[in-house]
């Protein structure tokens, strides 16, 4: 974490005494500290510590897949333009690494025309992934992992090409949407010569500081979403997510599913019906078999009439693998975009799953959910993409060096 900002509690007495423009502007909004037009940004109501907070860029894993998810995310997929060489890819990875290193530590990249926007990283992370074409360009076909390909089709899919696949992924996350936007702009400029943008998807969680650290996020159905995913930094999380061998050691695989959540038909369901769909309560996220959020789910429990307390087709029962090697790490961000063609809402989840092996871990779970899951009544996968998330690097290295170095 970075050093806290200079403690400032609002417009200073001096600014009121100054006759100049800044003083006049502050005077006009006296009491509304955040709107301190013309003031340096440190003059907002708080001490600005959230803006200055940093997640270290260097390490065996890229920060965005090893750290607690930030409030805002933008996922950007690019296609490599035809004729891009291995040397071009190396140049781009060096540029992205250098700029990400700076941006995540609050330092403007060299060609930054708005350097002030870089000064508040707000836990910015930049995570880079490759699709199969980029891996093949960097290391030849044998370097492409067998799982790095589009997912098999599932019966529930209604995929739209505009949300699928890609040669390169940038996952940019921070607790401040401005930091995300600026980083995307800078990194996008680096990529412009070698790539065309394929898609861009943005999502959000609770704002930083609004809930206790480590609390499970709520999705737009109001559910606590992420309970079963192991804690950030835990051995269990690392065992599920990280690859341990070969050029991807320290990396992971990322599946992004853009899943529409039909808020209008969900509105029609009563509370017991909603809780039954998942097998957990809405208020505390506890299993319907009792206890607190993190207590075990009892899939054997039956009610007085002998029926299972947790339905045979409840999401938690269908999603839970019998084989512990099939477990995944789920991240998720909500999206709430402008409605299209007669819709009244266009909302859902940017569902992100991390695992060491997509075919061995993610696919069997998704297959089971496609066969039967009450949640399918209100959810529809619209987008799907799989990327190899590169291992992290140290101060002297660059992302992708294990194939390009
Ligand atoms: C919009 C779509 C989805 C929603 C709203 C949703 C919601 C939830 C909720 C509320 C829980 C219970 C709390 C928790 O442990 O997080 C849960 C658990 C889970 N979900 Fe989903 N989910 C969705 C899609 C998916 C998909 C696509 C997968 C994987 C293919 C998945 C896999 C899981 C797993 C593995 C669990 C934990 C099950 C256990 O307790 O062992 N979910 N989900």
What's the arrangement of secondary structure elements?
Layout: H1 13-17, H2 21-28, H3 49-52, H4 63-66, E1 72-80, H5 86-104, E2 125-130, H6 132-139, E3 168-174, H7 177-191, E4 195-204, E5 217-218, E6 224-225, H8 235-241, E7 252-261, H9 263-266, H10 271-278, H11 315-319, E8 329-337, E9 346-355, H12 358-371, E10 379-389, H13 401-404
Antiparallel strand pairs: 1-3, 1-4, 2-3, 2-10, 5-6, 7-9, 7-10, 8-9
Helix pairs in contact: 5-7
The protein binds protoporphyrin IX containing FE.
Protoporphyrin IX containing FE (HEM) is lined by residues 219, 221, 223-228, 257, 259, 261, 278, 280, 297, 315-316, 319-320, 328, 349, 351, 365-366, 369, 375, 379.
Commentary on this structure:
There is one protein chain. By secondary structure, the protein is an alpha+beta fold. The chain has a domain at 15-138 and 163-234: Apc35880, domain 1 (Alpha-Beta Plaits), CATH 3.30.70.1030. The protein has helices at 13-17, 21-28, 49-52, 63-66, 86-104, 132-139, 177-191, 235-241, 263-266, 271-278, 315-319, 358-371, 401-404, and strands at 72-80, 125-130, 168-174, 195-204, 217-218, 224-225, 252-261, 329-337, 346-355, 379-389. Strand 5 (217-218) and strand 6 form a beta hairpin. The protein is globular. The model is unreliable at 1-44 (pLDDT under 50). Bound molecules: protoporphyrin IX containing FE. Protoporphyrin IX containing FE is lined by residues 219, 221, 223-228, 257, 259, 261, 278, 280, 297, 315-316, 319-320, 328, 349, 351, 365-366, 369, 375, 379.
């Amino acid at each position: 974490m970075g050093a806290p900002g200079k403690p400032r509690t609002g417009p200073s007495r001096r600014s009121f005494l100054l006759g100049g423009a800044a003083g006049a502007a502050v005077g006009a909004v006296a009491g509304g500290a955040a709107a301190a037009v013309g003031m340096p940004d440190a003059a907002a109501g708080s001490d600005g510590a959230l803006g200055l907070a940093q997640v270290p860029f260097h390490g065996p894993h890229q920060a965005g897949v090893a750290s607690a998810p930030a409030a805002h995310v933008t996922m950007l997929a690019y296609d490599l333009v035809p004729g891009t060489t291995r040397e071009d890819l190396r140049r781009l990875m060096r540029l992205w690494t250098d700029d990400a290193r700076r941006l995540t530590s609050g330092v403007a990249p060299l060609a930054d025309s708005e350097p002030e926007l870089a000064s508040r990283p707000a836990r910015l992370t930049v995570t880079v992934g490759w699709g199969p074409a980029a891996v093949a360009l960097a290391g030849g076909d044998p370097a492409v992992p067998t799982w790095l390909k589009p997912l098999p089709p599932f019966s529930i899919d209604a995929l739209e090409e505009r949300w699928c696949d890609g040669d390169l992924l940038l996952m940019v996350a921070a607790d401040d949407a401005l930091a995300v936007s600026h980083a995307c702009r800078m990194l996008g400029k680096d990529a412009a010569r070698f790539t065309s943008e394929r898609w861009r998807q943005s999502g959000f969680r609770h704002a930083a500081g609004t809930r206790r650290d480590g609390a499970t996020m709520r999705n737009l159905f109001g559910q606590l979403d992420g309970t079963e995913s192991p804690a950030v930094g835990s051995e269990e999380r690392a065992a599920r997510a990280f690859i341990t061998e070969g050029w991807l050691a320290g990396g992971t695989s990322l599946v992004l599913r853009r899943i529409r959540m039909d808020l209008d038909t969900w509105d029609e369901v009563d509370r017991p019906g909603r809780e039954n769909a998942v097998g957990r309560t809405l208020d505390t996220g506890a299993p319907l078999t009792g206890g607190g959020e993190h207590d075990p789910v009892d899939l054997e429990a039956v009610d007085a009439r002998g029926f299972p307390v947790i339905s045979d087709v409840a999401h938690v029962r269908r999603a839970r693998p019998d084989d512990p090697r099939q477990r995944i790490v789920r991240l998720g961000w909500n999206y709430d975009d402008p409605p299209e063609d007669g819709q009244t809402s266009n909302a859902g989840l940017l569902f992100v799953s991390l695992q060491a092996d997509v075919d061995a871990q993610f696919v069997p779970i998704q297959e089971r959910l496609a066969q039967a899951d009450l949640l399918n009544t209100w959810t529809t996968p619209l987008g799907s993409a799989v990327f190899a998330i590169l291992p992290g690097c140290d101060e002297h290295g660059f992302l992708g060096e294990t194939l390009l170095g």
